[in-house]
Amino acid sequence: MTTNSKAVCPVFERACFEIADKLNPRGYRAHGEGAQSLAELRVLTYEAHDAVTVSELHSDHTIFSRPEGNYAFRAWHEQRHLSENAEFDDAGERRVHAAMARDLAEWLAGQKPDFINQMRACILLECENIGQLGYWRAYGSPPDDQRTFALGYLAARGLL
């Protein structure tokens, strides 16, 4: 597995770790493919004694400095599927994104990073959730190189 040497946005990476830890007090684990549905996520979480299980696949070429950053993002994301009772469909993913955007706004308010890093963090959250959802719908799979996809997403918004 390739690890990235530098996070695209260290503020967003730190947010992912801290929010994931806050929302998953029993921890989370990266294992196999992860859940393919809300029902499967519930079963995996129950079997892991309330620790959310996330996919360990495709964690190279991401926006994070190391695979664990991607796992933290996924743990945050999956926990919001559970808390929002959101299916793994377009409507459910958008509900999860809205909950995550609220989490991130609350976290950023407590951290007070500069404006550009706040914007990067918000746009990266949108990219990881909504941008990749659109890509998946158009091409039938997530982007192979999530890092390049995210850099393009930021560049299109003048945030590189």
Write out key terms for the chains shown:
single chain, 160 residues, mainly alpha, two-stranded parallel ribbon, 2 strands, globular
Main beta-sheet strand count, sense and barrel state: 2 strands, parallel
Multimerization state: single chain
How large a portion of the residues is in β-strands, by DSSP E?
under 5%
- What do the pLDDT scores average to? 93
- The coarse overall form would be globular
Task: Give the CA-CA distance, first to last residue.
Answer: 26 Å
Number of DSSP strand runs: 2
Q: What class do helices, strands and sheet pairing give?
A: mainly alpha
Taking Cα atoms only, what radius of gyration do you get, to the nearest Å?
15 Å
Q: How many separate structural domains? A: 1
pLDDT < 50 stretches:
none
Can you give the helix content as a percent range?
Answer: 55-70%
Order of helices and strands: HEHEHHHH
Overall description:
With 160 residues, the chain is mainly alpha-helical. The chain has one domain (10-156). Helices cover 62% and strands 4% of the residues. It contains 6 helices and 2 strands, in the order αβαβαααα. The chain has helices at 10-23, 38-47, 67-83, 90-111, 115-139, 146-156, and strands at 28-30, 52-54. Helix 2 links the parallel strand 1 (28-30) and strand 2. Helix 5 packs across helix 6.
